[in-house]
Each structure stands twice: as structure tokens, then as C-alpha cells.
């Protein structure tokens, strides 16, 4: 039985392992991409994904339906990642060093991002602080809406917009630094 995510989750809550497998097949690729970008390490992302699935298995009966199942899953994945990454301190780009962008519309800096090498962009994303990195990944890798990101992260939509704005500026700054070191 295929069913919607909600039906699958109710089945998971009843202890049906095949429903968890079906839910995994639907969402594993997106969740893994999100976790890999947060963790910066494939193996660690796989471990966090397994922790996420275990948490879903144990907590499916607590799903209240206030959000979409997909959003709920990303929230669990985010919490599992934060639990694992507390002791990991990636190099971060300080937002104090980043000039504030006056207009959130695509400017020359954002247009330059399109022309950059994928590895450069991923390296720059990895340099962002966790709060900024997660909203970037949720928006551009998982393709969640700002409202869905707000649900996952547990902040108002305005905070998501602000974090995305500052993350873009920090990305531009980090990319400029990476460009300078590669010359």
C-alpha cells in the first residue's frame, strides 16, 4: 500500500516497518542532501540519517499534523544533526565582517554565484555558521518554502528571511576569500 505520507506515518506509529521503508524511499535523498551539507561529511550525514529514521520510528505516534510530514521529517533531521554537530566547530565566516547588502534582489554578487564552480560554492556554504548553512540548504537543496523552513527551524518566517539574506552576503564574502586563495 503506497498511501500519502500521513497514512505511512500512521502505519509507522502502529509498528509497520514496511511503511517506514516507504517513507524512507520517498524522503531519504532530500534528507541526506540536507544532512550532508550541514555535516560536511558523507559518513556523518549517513549516521545522522540513521538517527533520524530511528527517531521517526520511535516518535511517529507524536506527529500531530500541524505541519506536513516532510517538514516534520526535516525538523527531526535538523535536531539529530544539531545533537551530533555540537562538538564539531567548522570554520565560520563572521557576519560582522560581511558588508550588509542593501537590496535583497539578485545583484552582481549573486549573479557571479551562478558562474562559480560547484565545489567553490559547496566550500563556501560549509564555511557558514550552522544557523545560516541550514537555511541555505533547506531553501536551495531541499527546496522548502520559507514557511516550511520556519516550521523546521522553529523560528518566524521573518527570521528565515533575515538568515537567508545574511547567509547570501556571507556566501559572497566567503567566495571572494576562496577566489583570493586560489589565485
Automatic annotation (TrEMBL):
This is RNA polymerase sigma factor. Pfam families: Sigma70_r2, Sigma70_r4_2. PROSITE patterns: SIGMA70_ECF. The keyword Zinc does not apply. Keywords: DNA-binding, Sigma factor, Transcription, Transcription regulation. GO terms for biological process: DNA-templated transcription initiation; response to stress. InterPro entries: RNA_pol_sigma-70-like, RNA_pol_sigma-70_dom, RNA_pol_sigma70_ECF_CS, RNA_pol_sigma70_r2, RNA_pol_sigma70_r4_t2, RNA_pol_sigma_r2, RNA_pol_sigma_r3/r4-like, WH-like_DNA-bd_sf. It comes from Labedaea rhizosphaerae. The lineage of its organism: Bacteria, Bacillati, Actinomycetota, Actinomycetes, Pseudonocardiales. Gene3D superfamilies: 1.10.1740.10, Winged helix-like DNA-binding domain superfamily/Winged helix DNA-binding domain. GO terms for molecular function: DNA binding; sigma factor activity. PANTHER family: BLR3042 PROTEIN (PTHR43133:SF32), RNA POLYMERASE ECF-TYPE SIGMA FACTO (PTHR43133). SUPFAM superfamilies: Sigma2 domain of RNA polymerase sigma factors, Sigma3 and sigma4 domains of RNA polymerase sigma factors. Belongs to the sigma-70 factor family. ECF subfamily. CDD domains: Sigma70_r4 (cd06171). Residues 119-171 form the RNA polymerase sigma factor 70 region 4 type domain. Residues 23-87 form the RNA polymerase sigma-70 region domain.
Amino acid at each position: 500500500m503506497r498511501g500519502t505520507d500521513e497514512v505511512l506515518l500512521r502505519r509507522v506509529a502502529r509498528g509497520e516497518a514496511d511503511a517506514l521503508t516507504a517513507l524512507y524511499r520517498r524522503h531519504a535523498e532530500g534528507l541526506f542532501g540536507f544532512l550532508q551539507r550541514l555535516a560536511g561529511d558523507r559518513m556523518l550525514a549517513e549516521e545522522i540519517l540513521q538517527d533520524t529514521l530511528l527517531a521517526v520510528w520511535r516518535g511517529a505516534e507524536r506527529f500531530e499534523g500541524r505541519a506536513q510530514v516532510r517538514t516534520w521529517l526535516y525538523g527531526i533531521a535538523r535536531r539529530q544533526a544539531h545533537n551530533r554537530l555540537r562538538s564539531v566547530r567548522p570554520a565560520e565566516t563572521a557576519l560582522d565582517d560581511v558588508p550588509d547588502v542593501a537590496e535583497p534582489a539578485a545583484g552582481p554578487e549573486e549573479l557571479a554565484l551562478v558562474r562559480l564552480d560547484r565545489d567553490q560554492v559547496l566550500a563556501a556554504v560549509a564555511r557558514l555558521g550552522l544557523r545560516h548553512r541550514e537555511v541555505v540548504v533547506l531553501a536551495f537543496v531541499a527546496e522548502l518554502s520559507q514557511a516550511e523552513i520556519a516550521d523546521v527551524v522553529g523560528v518566524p518566517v521573518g527570521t528565515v528571511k533575515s538568515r537567508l539574506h545574511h547567509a547570501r552576503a556571507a556566501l559572497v564574502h566567503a567566495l571572494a576569500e576562496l577566489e583570493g586563495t586560489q589565485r
